[in-house]
């Protein structure tokens, strides 16, 4: 029979188990989005990962507080959960509000700061070469396009002639997809956190 604190305790434990699952989903999706963009790593995605980690920790605190009926711990649990909601909601909105120009700036700065090995890896993954004239196609001579042809051919011993697309569009698209997915999932799960209130 459900009555008194027993019913509340069981529902609170079940809700916190759900929050553990939500935290793992947030961490996983944000980490995937961060890895998928390869070069452009955004702080917004890192904040979603941090929110997932904090949500995981606070969910464990909620399970312990509910099972022990520890009211002080439950009070701080509610306050911290509300703060996580505010941060997660704000960052999710920022991820969704990032426009193409901002994504291009993020991708360009990421490209400038990336090592040659990381740029080469991005060029191989996205079948592209260079980033809007930032580099001189120096490491594109072994990159293949989607059809399997070399992107760049050495002409006259030193000149490099390339027919592959620049990397700005594929990087920007990967970054945009990652921000959209992370923002959407973060926004959806931030509302599940506020339902508790």
From TrEMBL:
Record key words, sorted: Membrane, Transmembrane, Transmembrane helix
Subcellular compartments: Membrane
A Pfam family assignment: Tetraspanin
Protein name: Tetraspanin-31
Source superkingdom: Eukaryota
Membrane topology value: Multi-pass membrane protein
Chief place where the protein resides: membrane
Species of provenance: Armadillidium nasatum
């Amino acid at each position: 029979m459900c009555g008194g604190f027993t019913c509340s305790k069981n529902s609170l434990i079940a809700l916190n188990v759900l929050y553990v699952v939500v935290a793992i989903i947030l961490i996983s999706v944000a980490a995937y989005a961060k890895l998928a963009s390869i070069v452009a790593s955004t702080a917004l995605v890192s904040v979603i990962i941090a929110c997932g980690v904090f949500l995981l920790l606070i969910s464990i605190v909620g399970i312990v507080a509910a099972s022990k009926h520890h009211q002080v711990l439950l009070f701080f649990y509610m306050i911290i959960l509300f703060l996580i909601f505010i941060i997660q909601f704000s960052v999710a909105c920022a991820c969704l509000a990032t426009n193409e120009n901002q994504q291009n700036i993020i991708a360009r700065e990421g490209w400038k700061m990336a090592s040659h090995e990381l740029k080469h890896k991005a060029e191989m993954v996205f079948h592209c070469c260079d980033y809007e004239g930032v580099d001189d196609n120096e490491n594109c001579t072994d990159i293949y396009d989607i059809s399997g042809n070399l992107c760049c051919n050495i002409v006259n011993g030193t000149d490099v002639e390339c027919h592959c697309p620049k990397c700005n569009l594929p990087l920007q698209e990967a970054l945009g997809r990652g921000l959209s997915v992370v923002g959407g999932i973060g926004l959806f799960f931030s509302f599940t956190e506020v339902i508790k209130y």
